[in-house]
Amino acid sequence: MAAIERQNGTVIAAHGRHYLVQAGDIKLHCVTRGKKSDVAVGDVVEYQLTSKNQGVIEAITPRKTLLYRSDQYKSKMLAANLTQLMIVVATEPSFADDLVSRALVASESSGIKPHIVLNKTDVTALLPRARERVALYAGLGYPVHEVSVTAAPESTRATLLALLEGQSTILIGQSGMGKSSLINLLIPDAEIATREISAALDTGKHTTTFTRLYQMDAASAVIDSPGFQEFGLHHLSEGMLERAFPEFLPHLGHCKFYNCHHHAEPGCAILAAVKSGDIAEMRHDLFEQLVHEAAQTMGYTR
């Protein structure tokens, strides 16, 4: 009896252990064998057909990148094979610096290029303050792009399409930042596609509660993620964290002690840079907080 042939496809949506896989022009409702659910949106998987529009995922092909967030108890994969991360912030409502900074650390540690998109620039009264806040990240070398879906949809679309070309990009942001409006501007059929995904996975859930991938062309994809307020990074070790802050890099290796934690040690080059203003105090505070969270998860104390 001949073995059933495996075929390849891209996971474009996930809900629990149910996945929608795009294979050429067809979309298949797939499940994994057993209870494992370590498949992420953006994964290229090998599957076997079980019926005309259903299949079983047999293997995940090697990933180029994997972005995930984690708390003390579990990790949540956001997407695989990303090349870019776009953090959407806005003039109003106010955005959380903590979430932006954590997303930047996640992208640095995953080898994914981050961008910050400042939306709602038409709210002119609040624009100077928003610019002042994102200037910290621009000063660290992160690209900041100002857009307005409402006042300048055509230039916003042109700006973002140029950035998205040839990339696999995830958009993340808190609720209220205008991320859905950006997606609808970039992908005119997004709402229809999302309803189809929801029906195919039989989620019965509101369409903004799961991550989904839109293939723009053969080389470009956009992944939309649910809005979330927290971005835990409990899975990152202290060594991984210190290297995920680009402003730390020139000072690493210059501390008095080789195993310096950059906490309160004498002769710490990082603390000296904080004191001189080369490293923002807010950023060092975040580093301390992330190391503390990782310590709780990994069961060590410093």
Summary of the model, kept short:
The chain contains eight helices and 13 strands. The chain is of the alpha/beta class.
Written overview of the protein:
By secondary structure, this protein is an alpha/beta fold. The chain is built from 8 helices and 13 strands. The strands form 3 sheets. Strands 10-9-8-11-13-12 form a 6-stranded mixed beta sheet, sandwiched between helices. A 5-stranded mixed beta barrel has the order 1-2-3-5-4. β9, α2 and β10 form a beta-alpha-beta unit. The longest helix is centred in the C-terminal third of the chain and has 18 residues, at 281-298. The model has no long low-confidence stretch (mean pLDDT 90).
Distance between the termini: 60 Å
What's the overall average pLDDT, rounded? 90
What is the number of strand segments?
13
The helix content, as a percent range, equals: 25-40%
Globular, elongated, flat, extended or rod-shaped: what is the shape? globular
Classify the secondary structure makeup into a structural class. Answer: alpha/beta
- Helix and strand succession? EEEEEEEEHEHEHEHHEEHHH
Key terms for this structure?
five-stranded mixed β-barrel, alpha/beta, globular
